[in-house]
Amino acid sequence: MRSFAKAITAIAVIAFLGVSLRLASPEISNPPVTSDFAGPDSIAVIFKHACYDCHSNETQLSWYDKVAPVSWLVASHVEEGRKHLNLSKWDSLSPSQQLSTLWYMVNMIDQGVMPLKSYAAVHPGAEVSATELQQLKRYVVTLSGKQTSGPKPQTAPATPVKTNNITAVHQSINGIEYDSDYRNWKVIASTNRIDNGTMRVIYGNDIAVKAIQENHITPWPDGARIAKVVWNKTAEDENGNVYPGAFNNIQFMIRDARKYKDTGGWGYARFNTPELIPYGKKADFATECSNCHKLAAGQGFVFDIPTHASKTIANN
Amino acid sequence: MNLKNISLVLLVLLTAACSKPKSSTLAPEALYTNEGFSVITSFFNNKQQTTTILYGNPAAQQAISTGSAGQVIGEDYRLVTWIQRPNPLWFGSNINGQIKSIERVTIAAAPEGTIVSQYELLQGDLVNAPKDSLEQKRTQYIYSLRPLVFP
Predict the structure, then answer these.
(1) Once rounded to an integer, what is the mean pLDDT over residues B6-27?
(2) pLDDT at A7
(3) Residue A183: which of B30, B53, B150 has the nearest Cβ?
(4) Residue A184 belongs to a domain with what CATH number?
(5) Is A89 part of a structural domain of the chain?
(6) Same structural domain for residues A133 and A192?
(7) For residue A216, which of A66, A129, A151, A200 sits 20 to 30 Å off, Cα-Cα?
(8) Structural domain includes residue A84
(9) Residue B28: inside a domain, yes or no?
(10) Which residues pair with B79 in a beta bridge?
(11) Does B39 touch chain A (CB under 8 A)?
(12) Of the given ranges (A26-35, A237-246, B41-50, B69-78), which has the lowest mean pLDDT?
């Protein structure tokens, strides 16, 4: 009789907790779709099963998504996800933003960051297969290929270097100033991008170069400075050479773990066009930079450092 | 901290424990450093999958920027070429790997007040071509490169 009473009590407690947790769950609504992602069906179908639950207004919840504490996590994922990217508001992005977003999405998937491991673990249908990832890669490469491939290379003799007389202080909204001293730093790497038609030379100051040489980059030492100078590419010549065209922008990463703790210890700044117009209208623009650089967390949030091709190791 | 916050923290920690950032072994030997030399230009080659930077001392920078490369004693150029490979951290970006070759061209004084250019392959191999012709071609090629436009 006593054990029967215990069982009844246990059932009552579980039921009470269940109802309480259910009632405590947040509501996740689906606002109207204003402009759905516009792309081939073969690509849209991948996004729908892998991304839409958190990155669209067409969230489809399983029953267990609606029970606390899972529901709290799901609600926060959906809220955050829609804030970062909402594929139901695709036209709110400019064509160039759409292209860079697609590349970003492919890279987030390629690096195993998206779909979130915790989400995919309980939503196996969200996983992106290797075949689908290849499909996505081909898609973005094709899209970028449709962009103009740049002007023809100039074959005339060298002309004088155009150097602006930088007299005014060029300052990002977060206080980081354009630092022309980078020309005296060492080159860390040179890169070229097929996603946005640019090529770059990446410089590091002595502290940054020493950090690479001594493999002390997780974390990088305070005082490290990196400058990435970006030029547009010109069209490939008959020998396969691609030369730089117009100056596009220059980006700085300034290491100060305390000052820039909200953005992974790095201060970010970018100056566009030869006029060096600071990028970012609000101080939190660097969060956008920092979020993307999280993909390079294993290299202290710096993408462009020469590494060995065959000795990839997991970093704990 | 209420039940909701504790649960969220636990769930986030569980997620974080499953995610490890990717990292690779650094290749500091791929960095080319030479005091007193600055970047003149940079380019890459899709057929050979290489990326190249032309460095120069102040005399070389001045000469090439005024279209008079190869005419002033003291000009010193280094053409450094790396193997190019995909950046493991970003699909769509190629980055330099190991150094493939380093070429040097200098301008020195010659008898009777003339000047002479000297070509040296300091490191690596270039295409299989007659030595004299190759040296002359490479020297002229370096002189023909246009400097980058810096802000």
Answers:
(1) 57
(2) 67
(3) B150
(4) 3.50.70.20
(5) yes
(6) no
(7) A200
(8) yes
(9) no
(10) B54, B103
(11) yes
(12) A26-35
Instruction: Answer yes or no: are the C-beta atoms of B110 and A129 closer than 8 Å.
Output: no
Model confidence, pTM: 0.84
Q: What mean pLDDT comes out for the span A214-242?
A: 96
Spatial CB neighbours of A138, under 8 Å, sequence gap ≥ 6: none
* Distance (Å, whole) CA A294 – CA A193: 19
Question: Mean of the per-residue pLDDT values for chain A?
Answer: 86
Q: Is the dihedral of CA A172, A173, A176, A177 positive or negative?
A: positive
Does residue A133 share a domain with residue A29? yes
Which of A122, A146, A170 delimits the end of a domain? A146
Between B3 and B146, the higher pLDDT residue:
B146
Q: How many domains does chain A have?
A: 2
Cβ–Cβ contact B44 with A under 8 A: yes
By DSSP bridging, strand B93-109 and strand A186-193 are: antiparallel
Residue B5 lies in a domain: no
* pLDDT recorded at residue A180: 94
Q: Single out the residue in A146, A163, A197 at which a domain terminates.
A: A146
Task: Please state, for a pLDDT cut of 90, what percent of chain B lies above it.
Answer: 72
Vertex A290: Cα angle to A219 and A124 (nearest 5): 100
Tell me, what's the ipTM?
0.86
Residues A127, A195: one domain? no
Q: How many domains does chain B have?
A: 1
Examine residue B100 and state whether it is found in any structural domain, yes or no: yes
Give a three-class secondary structure readout of B62-90.
Answer: HHHHCCCCCCCCCCEEEEEEEEEEECCCC
A138: containing domain: 16-146
* Residue B127 domain boundaries: 38-144
Q: Report the run of H or E that residue A50 belongs to, with start and end.
A: helix A41-50
Q: CB of A157 within 8 Å of any CB in chain B? A: yes
Residues of B in contact with A69 (CB under 8 A): 3-4, 7-8, 11
Mean pLDDT of chain B: 86
A25-35: average pLDDT: 87
The predicted-structure confidence for B60-107, as pLDDT tens digits, reads as follows: 999 999 999 999 999 999 999 999 999 999 999 999 999 999 999 999
Interface subset of A 173-232, CB within 8 angstroms of B: 178, 183-184, 186-195, 199, 201, 209, 212-213, 215, 217-218, 229, 231
